[in-house]
């Protein structure tokens, strides 16, 4: 019998030798009203018509959804047999995840729909389980962001990192700095149309995320990746630093060399910088970060710090120290990419996001350990494993390959605690799967690149360590994720049928 199609793999699952639970016209859902509404909607989407009745006297069977205090945060228990299904969540998030697990268990046969007899006790390995969506290189409208939230939350991700600014565009209205979107949001890579979020748009995204038990983490990338600022406030920016390496990137991928005051529509990175020793720069940071923080109820504010190749090392350290201090002063926890670990004055408690390789090179590990030494934690995002925009095959029509070709098995066979020596579970805040959008301009593009490899990232974030259970193996994963084909199709997810996966349905 193949493994049940559960992704991410639960902490403990037992298939019971008993008759399954069958959903029919006499089935009702009882208990928590919010979870019941979610379950009805998801099952109707899966089956193409409503499956569950409102609770009423005389029903023959029921799905019971309840909150049960005492478990770990976000945990749940699910039991199913011929008599019914019961899900107990330690909190609302746990009940939400239990409902999504139940939907994955649903099986169609000639008589209708059933749930196999099973006992599941589940809880996450890491508290931070993130996906990142780049809306700067190509702008993605609110509807697309909300759709990606729905997809990620179903796989038990609980943070959405939005990359809101880059050389190619500024994507969030800042009332105190209106020219950022009036001048800096109009274009995208390749000259495609740009766009930006109003405050109401952003609040809509935040609210939709919260309804799916996800926290929005906004990123304003600095001091590099800031060319769009030059379109609005040129007095804040240094002249571009263009190297031969950047010229080669432009030759391969197209685009003109960056010029201050002109939109940049290419793929090259590392040439831009804010003016580090000018106080007007920090007045700008205070305005922008203050407004973003006020719009964001979550605890984190990401200030970038990656690929600042146009900023001298001492200047970079000075800037990141001041930027993280501003964030801390706003009552938020700063997050930066791992390069900022080299900045001696970084605010204590800053979280470092590692985007290097499964085997660190060029001091990436030293910079990452520095966050822990200062009292912070680390988010793992190894590019050659869970950068979902890396090509899964050499002939893939979308994606890049600067971190190599990343097939599904490579995305799966790594463990967060084995990447950086000295950074184990206690020092790891969580795992995040970034999706950069240089080549991705539609939801269909996002689906094609993210699915199915996003499932591998989900297991790294939620499930027990690689090899710790019989399910935490590549052989099990390729069966389990393959069993989700029908569910994903019913949800309108345009996943790529990678030949590595044992697709069923």
TrEMBL record:
Residues 5-123 form the Beta-hexosaminidase bacterial type N-terminal domain. Pfam families: Glyco_hydro_20 (PF00728), Glyco_hydro_20b (PF02838). The keyword Hydrolase applies. It comes from the Bacteria. It catalyses: Hydrolysis of terminal non-reducing N-acetyl-D-hexosamine residues in N-acetyl-beta-D-hexosaminides. Residues 126-308, 316-464 form the Glycoside hydrolase family 20 catalytic domain. Its EC number is 3.2.1.52. It is an enzyme of class 3 (hydrolase). InterPro entries: Beta_hexosaminidase_sua/sub (IPR025705), GH (IPR017853), Glyco_hydro_20_cat (IPR015883), Hex-like_dom2 (IPR029018), HEX_bac_N (IPR015882). Keywords: Glycosidase, Hydrolase. Belongs to the glycosyl hydrolase 20 family. This is beta-N-acetylhexosaminidase. It comes from Microbacterium fluvii.
């Amino acid at each position: 019998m193949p493994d049940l199609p559960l992704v991410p793999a639960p902490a403990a699952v037992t298939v019971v030798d008993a008759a399954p639970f069958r959903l029919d016209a006499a089935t009702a859902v009882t208990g928590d009203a919010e979870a019941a509404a979610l379950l009805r909607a998801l099952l109707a989407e899966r089956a193409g018509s409503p499956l569950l009745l409102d609770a009423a006297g005389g029903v023959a069977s029921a799905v019971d959804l309840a909150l049960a205090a005492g478990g770990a945060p976000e945990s749940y228990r699910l039991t199913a047999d011929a008599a019914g299904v019961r899900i107990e969540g330690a909190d609302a998030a746990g009940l939400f995840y239990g409902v999504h697990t139940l939907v994955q268990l649903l099986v169609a046969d000639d008589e209708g729909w059933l749930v196999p007899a099973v006992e599941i006790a589940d809880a996450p390995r890491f508290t931070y389980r993130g996906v990142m969506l780049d809306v700067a290189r190509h702008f993605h409208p609110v509807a697309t962001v909300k759709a990606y939230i729905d997809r990620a939350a179903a796989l038990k991700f609980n943070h959405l990192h939005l990359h809101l600014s880059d050389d190619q565009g500024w994507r969030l209205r800042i009332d105190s700095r209106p020219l950022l979107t009036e001048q800096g949001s109009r274009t995208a890579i390749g000259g495609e149309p740009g766009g930006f979020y109003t405050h109401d748009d952003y609040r809509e995204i935040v609210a939709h995320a919260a309804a799916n038990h996800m926290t929005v983490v906004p990123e304003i990338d600095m001091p590099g990746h800031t060319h769009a600022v030059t379109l609005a406030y040129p007095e804040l920016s240094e002249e571009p630093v263009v190297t031969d390496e950047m010229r080669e990137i432009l030759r391969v991928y197209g685009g003109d060399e960056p010029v201050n005051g002109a939109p940049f529509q290419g793929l090259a990175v590392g040439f831009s910088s804010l003016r580090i020793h000018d106080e007007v720069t920090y007045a700008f940071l205070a305005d922008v970060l203050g407004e973003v923080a006020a719009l964001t109820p979550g605890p984190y504010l990401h200030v970038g710090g990656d690929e600042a190749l146009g900023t001298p090392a001492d200047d970079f350290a000075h800037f990141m120290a001041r930027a993280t201090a501003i964030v801390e002063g706003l009552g938020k926890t700063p997050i930066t990419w791992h390069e900022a670990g080299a900045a001696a004055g970084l605010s204590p408690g800053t979280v470092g996001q590692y985007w290097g390789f499964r085997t660190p090179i060029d001091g990436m590990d030293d910079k990452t350990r520095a966050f822990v030494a200062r009292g912070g934690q680390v988010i793992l995002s190894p590019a050659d494993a869970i950068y979902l925009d890396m090509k899964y095959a050499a002939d893939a029509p979308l994606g890049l390959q600067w971190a190599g070709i990343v097939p599904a098995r490579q995305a799966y066979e790594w463990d967060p605690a084995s990447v950086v020596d000295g950074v184990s579970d206690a020092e790891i805040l969580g795992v995040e799967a970034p999706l950069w959008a240089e080549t991705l301009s539609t939801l269909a593009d996002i689906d094609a690149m993210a699915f199915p490899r996003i499932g591998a990232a989900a297991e790294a974030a939620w499930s027990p360590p690689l090899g710790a259970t019989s399910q935490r193996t590549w052989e099990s994963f390729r069966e389990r994720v393959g069993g989700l084909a029908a569910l994903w199709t019913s949800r309108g997810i345009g996943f790529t049928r990678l030949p590595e996966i044992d697709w069923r349905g």
